[in-house]
Specification:
With about 110 residues, the chain is an alpha+beta fold. It is built from four helices and four strands. Helix 1 packs antiparallel against helix 3. The protein is flat, with a radius of gyration of 16 Å.
Length: about 110
């Protein structure tokens, strides 16, 4: 079985009606494709870093990379994704592998 993947979505809403058309339907479609929204957030403040702030943060846990890919490439959703694209700007979509702890990153590579 594949490991879970986390999708970090950061974006601004540029067209409310377009994004609402996406959001209303995407909740069920994400779940049907093996995703689960872990957190939603509205930008509050920059603590540190040089990334330009975005209005919205959504963190989705996907059962696997295949589940994420299927959500994005499912022909039945071809009419859904344009609502996200047309309703947002400055979109950042980063994928992260799940870790139980930081040992794999901190291990000595010598």
């Amino acid at each position: 079985m594949s490991a879970p993947v986390y999708a970090l979505n950061l974006f601004n809403v540029s067209n409310r009606d377009e994004y609402l058309a996406y959001a209303k339907r995407s909740v069920a479609e994400v779940a049907a494709h093996g995703g689960r929204v872990v957190a939603l957030g509205k930008y509050r403040a920059t603590a540190t870093g040089d990334i330009e702030p975005r209005q919205v943060m959504i963190l989705v846990e996907w059962e696997s990379m295949d589940a994420f890919d299927h959500y994005n490439s499912d022909p039945a959703l071809a009419d859904l994704h344009p609502h996200r694209e047309n309703g947002t700007d400055a979109y950042i979509w980063h994928l992260f592998d799940r870790l139980d702890d930081l040992r794999p990153i901190l291990k000595d590579n010598d």
